[in-house]
Amino acid sequence: MALPARYLKKHTEALVKDVGIKTACVLSGKSKATLGRYYSDRDEHADRFMPVDVVAALEAKSGFPHVTAALAELRGVSISYDRARANTDEGEINSDVIKLSQRFALLMAEYNQSIADGVISINEAKRLLRETVALQQVLLDMKLHLEET
């Protein structure tokens, strides 16, 4: 499977897990098995991808637009949230800096634990990816707050 396809499948999996498999089934009208095929890296599912309308429905309920961000990254495009729709209740730059340092510390702790045996397993890589995405979310929120000032 080509790298872009694997990349999209990993982000599709992150989206489903972000929303929760049961919620994803209800929102998409798809079964657990069908959703699993969308992010399976097995050869028989290599050509199956989540339809755009399903991505939109799930990303509306997710904490981060996983698939949209992946598509943008594959094209070399940077995305940011729409100010009118952003959750800016906290809105303090100081709280953003604290969140940023906490998320970075979590990422480094996860990396330290993962590399301890000299090999990063698939599960460890998935945990690192989750922490990286969480760090990215904090950076996007911080960017929005800085643009507002």
Structure description:
- It is globular, with a radius of gyration of 17 Å.
- The chain folds into two domains: 3-75, no CATH class; 93-148.
- The protein has helices at residues 3-19, 21-28, 32-39, 52-61, 66-74, 93-115, 122-148.
- The N and C termini lie far apart (45 Å).
- The chain has seven helices and no strands.
- Mean pLDDT is 86; it is low at 83-88.
- The chain is mainly alpha-helical.
If you average the pLDDT, what whole number results? 86
Poorly predicted spans: 83-88
3D shape: globular
Strand segment count: 0
Q: By helix and strand content, what is the structural category?
A: mainly alpha
- Report the major sheet: none
Helix and strand string, N-terminal first?
HHHHHHH
What percent of residues adopt helix (DSSP H or I)?
Answer: 55-70%
Tally of helical segments: 7
Number of discrete domains: 2
* Distance linking N and C termini: 45 Å
What is the C-alpha radius of gyration, as a whole number of Å? 17 Å
Characteristics of this structure?
single chain, 149 residues, mainly alpha, 2 domains, 68% helix, 0% strand, Phage regulatory protein CII (CP76)
Could you give a short description of this structure?
This protein has 149 residues and is mostly helical. The protein has helices spanning 3-19, 21-28, 32-39, 52-61, 66-74, 93-115, 122-148.
Write the layout of secondary structure elements.
Layout (H helix, E strand, L loop, with lengths): L2 H17 L1 H8 L3 H8 L12 H10 L4 H9 L18 H23 L6 H27 L1
Helix pairs in contact: 1-2, 1-3, 1-4, 1-5, 6-7
